[in-house]
Amino acid sequence: MSNPAKTSTISNARAVRLLRMLQLLNEGAQKRSTLLARLNIDDRGFFRDLERLRALGVQLQVTRGEYRLEESIEEAYAKLPFPNPQLSVHEVRQLCQGDTDAHRKLKSMLDAFLATPPQPAPTSRNKRAAASKRSKPSS
Fold first, then answer.
1. Does residue 91 carry a pLDDT above 70?
2. pLDDT digits (tens, 9 = 90+) for 106-135
3. Whose CA is closest to 24, among 69, 60, 57?
4. What is the CATH number of domain 4-79?
């Protein structure tokens, strides 16, 4: 099964909110009003974050108005994407040194990034041709 965390990007603020929601749900069943107050979010933000967690594959249950985590916190953490750590290529290379699955995953991502060919700069002729295509009416 594919892990959505592998391809999802997430802002730091949202990552913190989702992490905090998981931690609160790990404490036991929680009413929405309690979660709203403790997370300092409105209904819309709550339902967005709840949907995001579900889309990531986190097992959540709602029973009689109480939300609960239906898997271990470690299983939920494994599905939560990590926000962009703002590392340089050099720093990522340093982190790739190791023999774990995480090291190999990061090395594979770095290799793919470094192998990306540069895109040619558009020439004046190419710009005119593209503009001409856009201005022609479709038949």
1. yes
2. 999 899 888 888 777 677 666 666 666 666
3. 69
4. 1.10.10.10
